[in-house]
């Protein structure tokens, strides 16, 4: 991902029937260039 990428997670997805939804277990905002640098080439 790069600085122009947005990620959106709709919390309602966790409540869908079937149990196959995604769930966020933790969240870390990568605010500085130093924090984002390890992910630039992914």
Keywords for this entry:
10% helix; 42 residues; little secondary structure; elongated; 1 helix; single chain
Descriptive account of the structure:
The protein is elongated and about 35 Å long. Helix content is about 10%, strand content about 0%. With about 40 residues, it is mostly loops. The chain has 1 helix and no strands. The termini are close together. The longest helix has 4 residues, at about 35. The chain has one helix at about 35.
What's the mean pLDDT score? 75
The SSE order reads H
Cα(first) to Cα(last) distance is 7 Å
Gyration radius (Cα, Å) is: 14 Å
Shape: elongated
Largest sheet: none
Number of helices: 1
The counted number of beta strands is 0
Q: Which band does the percent of strand residues land in?
A: under 5%
Which percent range fits the helix content? under 10%
Main structural class: little secondary structure
Q: Could you list the spans in which at least 5 consecutive residues all have pLDDT below 50?
A: none
């Amino acid at each position: 991902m790069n600085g122009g990428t947005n990620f959106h997670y709709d919390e309602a997805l966790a409540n869908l029937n079937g149990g196959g939804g995604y769930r966020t277990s933790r969240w870390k905002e990568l605010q500085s260039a130093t924090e984002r640098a390890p992910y630039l080439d992914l």
